From TrEMBL:
Keyword vocabulary terms for this entry: Membrane, Transmembrane, Transmembrane helix
Residue spans crossing the bilayer: 42-62, 82-103, 115-135, 161-185, 206-226
Record's protein name: DUF6533 domain-containing protein
Protein origin, superkingdom: Eukaryota
Lineage: Eukaryota, Fungi, Dikarya, Basidiomycota, Agaricomycotina
Keyword Transmembrane: yes
Domain DUF6533, chain residue ranges per copy: 12-57
């Protein structure tokens, strides 16, 4: 018996996202050039954008290498740890960009801004802890070419920790959806029938961004909540 990570179908799913990323990169590269050529001083938002934009390269590279390269425990471990590091960077930066968009919407309310910032720090810390625990020394058993009861239990533990990262992200994204919707409702109830164009675009963009991330997080939670499956392989 072998674990799921050695199956050919899973290898296809590892490589396929690279094509999507390259396609999106080609479509938006012109906008990126225009953005960085017209901006002034760098700030944390630009740094987070660079991380979310280019950190996936590390993940794709490691996944493609383990798919096309020789199968070994060392290669598997390197892939898991590289992908784990890239994943937590991407998630923390992505939620950080969402935080900044929402803070701009609530620029006039210090209490909401503190609440959002505290929520983000809690979520980022939770994701970092889950990632560190997921790439613990016991990961060797997950990368073993044949499965044992211990390796299955360890694989389940790793998947639950990764799922915990997405649960944390989903909770923050849901929080942003709620406070963004609340902002719209309170603005209208206060008599602001005509919201200026900038605020309207910011509200709609933040809500759409948060909802998109929330759907992605929920999809990942469902995926990682499935039991670790073991496949029998007939060796001819």
């Amino acid at each position: 018996m072998v674990l799921l990570h050695t199956q050919q179908t899973v290898k296809y799913f590892r490589v396929a996202p690279a094509a999507v990323w390259v396609f999106d990169y080609c479509l938006t590269f012109e906008h990126e050039i225009r953005l960085f050529s017209s901006m002034g001083r760098w700030n944390i938002a630009h740094a987070m954008f660079i991380i979310t934009r280019y950190a996936p390269i590390a993940w794709f590279t490691s996944e493609i290498y383990v798919t096309l390269g020789p199968e070994s425990v060392e290669t598997c471990l390197t892939t898991y740890r590289t992908a784990g590091g890239a994943l937590v960077l991407i998630m923390v930066a992505t939620e950080g960009l969402l935080l900044m968009r929402t803070l701009a919407l609530w620029h006039h309310n210090e209490k909401i801004k503190r609440f959002l910032l505290a929520s983000y720090l809690l979520v980022a810390t939770s994701m970092l802890i889950c990632d560190v625990l997921a790439v613990s020394p016991n990961l060797e058993s997950v990368c073993a070419p044949t499965s044992t009861q211990g390796s299955v239990e360890e694989a389940t533990r790793v998947e639950r920790l990764i799922m915990g990262m997405f649960v944390s992200a989903a909770l923050f994204e849901l929080t942003v959806v709620i406070v963004t919707t609340y902002h719209s409702l309170t603005s209208r109830s206060a008599g602001m029938r005509t919201i200026n164009n900038l605020v309207s675009k910011l509200w709609k963009g933040s809500l759409l961004y948060a909802l998109s991330l929330f759907v992605i997080s929920v999809a990942n939670i469902i995926s990682f909540s499935l039991p670790v499956r073991i496949f029998h392989v007939l060796r001819h």
